[in-house]
Amino acid sequence: MGDVLDDDPFSAVLADHADFVDKLTELEATLDEMMATRDASEENGIILDEAILPRLEAAIGRYGTLVSVVGYEHAEIRRGVEKFKDARRALGRQPSWSAIQEANRHGIFLVQFLWDHFRKERTSLYPTARQRLSASDLEAIRKRFGH
Predict the structure, then answer these.
(1) How large is the angle between the packed helices 11-37 and 42-51, nearest 10 degrees?
(2) φ, ψ of residue 73 in degrees (nearest 5)
(3) Could you please report the per-residue DSSP string of 47-96?
(4) CB under 8 Å, gap of 24 or more: what pairs does 112-117 form?
(5) According to a count of CB atoms within 10 Å of the terminal CB, is the N or C end of the chain lower?
(6) Is 0.70 topped by the overall pTM?
(7) CA 14 to CA 117: how far, in whole Å?
(8) How is residue 133 annotated by DSSP?
(9) Treating both helix axes as pointing N-terminal to C-terminal, what angle do 68-93 and 53-60 enclose, rounded to 10 degrees?
(10) Dihedral (CA of 97, 99, 103, 109) sign
(11) Which helix H or strand E contains 111, and what residues bound it?
């Protein structure tokens, strides 16, 4: 997702986004495979479970937002994750073609929404924050999001 200086207040978040991109690619490929084969293997299930849900929820958190639009999107992502979890559970109980389609529908939504969300933060929100916030505000962000 581009070179980011270590002292950039958003470097930790951007690094997390880069890690998610790999997981999103893996999730999308697994969903494509399930759609193409009309089958959900045990390996597919493992990838669905590991691809996005735990890390995404940990990164988004439950409280606090950067701005209202990003906050709304974080809430929408959490709703999408819950729908994906439900579809995943249904697929685990009965790996039917309709269950594969439902998992695909919710999974692809997350992939597309997250790609756009990460782009919006990287190309609009963070540059604006870097330009308009004070040095002490940027330092507080760095501390909050630092690993």
Answers:
(1) 160
(2) -65, -40
(3) HHHHHSHHHHHHHH-SS--SSHHHHHHHHHHHHHHHHHHHHHHHHHH---
(4) 113/73, 113/76, 113/77, 113/80, 114/20, 114/24, 114/56, 114/77, 115/21, 115/24, 117/70, 117/73, 117/77
(5) C
(6) no
(7) 12
(8) S
(9) 160
(10) positive
(11) helix 97-120
111-138 residue pLDDT tens: 999 999 998 888 887 887 788 778 888 8
pLDDT band at residue 23 under the 50/70/90 scheme: confident
The helix (run of H) or strand (run of E) holding residue 25 is: helix 11-37
Q: Tell whether domain 11-145 is in CATH 1.20.120.520.
A: yes
The span from the first CA to the last CA of the chain, in angstroms, equals 18
Look-up of token digits 């940027």: 138
Q: Which class for 76: exposed (0-12), middle (13-18), buried (19 or more C-beta within 10 A)?
A: middle
Structure tokens at 4: 């980011």
Classified as helix, coil or strand, 108 is helix
